[in-house]
Amino acid sequence: MIYYYRTFQTLKNFLPYSNFHKLTSFQQIKNQRYLPKNSLSFSTNSKSLIKEIIKNQTSLLIKWSNSNSLSNYNYIWLRDNCQCPLCVHPDNRQKLLSSSEVPLDIKPISIESSLDKLEITWDNDIYPISFLHSYSTKQNILKLHYNHLKPILWDSSSIINSQNLWISYNDYMNSDKILLDSLRQLWDYGLVFIKNVPTGDDDDKGILNVAERIGNIRSTIYGKVFDVKSIPAANNIAYTRLQFLHCLKNSVTGGQSIFSDTFKAIQKLNFHHPNYFNLLTTFPLTFHYINNGHHMYYNRPAIVIDDYNDTLTVNYAPPFQGPIEFTLGSNDDENEINLIEFYRAYQQFCKFIEEPSLKFELTLKPSDLVIFANRRVLHARKSFDPQSGQRHLKEC
Question: Same domain for 94 and 221?
Fold first, then answer.
């Protein structure tokens, strides 16, 4: 998984620690230090953001000057999300107050607003104005979570025109700008290729360099890196969030790689069959792997959406799909109807996935490395003749 970090301006002139007192409802937290001026991740550009503050019985209403909109902040929510050093650790930014400790009948004693903060007296809690503004609308919350960066849906004709589909290994390793371009390509399209990655017999160095440029590698049941070869009784499974495939040798006839954007297939499914889309976001599928002393199991829908009905991930792995469990032992006619409807929906989804226009096909050459978002982009290959040459890839 990639974690995207963002740089914020720092909040200056934060209220001194000595002003925090009267923790009447909560246990005193001792040995806290002053909040460093460069550690709070909120902007100082809050001038005239608040136009009016209105108190009612259960919440605080803020009218914003930049939009004239009115936002409602429940008193319990405000107390639970105080940003002062007693409630958020000044060093590691971890929350120190449990939601279970907030009195359900809490009310403010006084409220004072300044340029960049809102001070509420029940424990002298502090709220940067920009923090409150970030939670004032659903649109602002989306920006806070980076969900405003929408994925770019693609098919075989459009993906080849994406600006950063191919990246040079040397540029990727030595330029932070090129690294950022690569990560943005992954975010937008779920697919990026790195060319001229060093190769060598059974050499993990190239793929490790590329992967660790992004972040730490999570070890699987195969270790950090494993081989992808044509061998009898192969038993490997790919399930990582980001998947890296490095081609070391490829002289066989056939074996072209195929990539497909499931988000594009979902868009078509939702447009033509919205009832099928809704069913696949709720119907529980079983995925399992039982082999070689390992047993992995999980139950989840094929399509996972967020609170705004946008697709987050796709769970699609037919070879590792287990028996559907929710109807077992049931004589309920409604369950039977739902099961049949699920198969109709699933088969229609698969038809969209298999459309030739959605398949991007190419032959990986030695030194090529592909990174793809495994919960969005499907990967397959065509058959090849193992007697015609060698084919060896590294994967993590």
Answer: no
Nearest to 70 by CA among 47, 53, 57, 95: 53
Model pLDDT for residues 291-347, shown as the tens digit of each residue: 778 788 888 999 998 877 788 899 998 888 887 876 554 556 666 668 889 999 999
User: Is the same domain home to 100 and 242?
Assistant: no
Backbone phi, psi, residue 166, to 5°: -115, 130
* Closest residue by Cα to residue 317 from 212, 369, 240, 388: 240
The residues, any chain, with a CB within 8 Å of residue 31's CB and separated by 6 or more, are none
Q: At what angle do helices 262-272 and 333-353 cross, to 10 degrees?
A: 120
Domain that holds residue 60: 17-144
Nearest to 85 by CA among 98, 94, 74, 77: 94
- For residues 272 and 317, state if they share a domain: yes
Give the total number of structural domains in the chain. 2
Q: Which residue has the tokens 């987050």?
A: 312
Strand pairing report for 303-305 and 311-314: antiparallel
- 12 located within any domain: no
What's the burial of 210, exposed, middle or buried (CB within 10 Å: 0-12/13-18/19+)?
buried
What would the pLDDT profile of 105-115 be if each residue is shown by its tens digit? 888 888 888 77
Has residue 229 been placed in a domain? yes
Determine the 3-state secondary structure of 187 from DSSP: helix
- 256: tokens are 């072209």
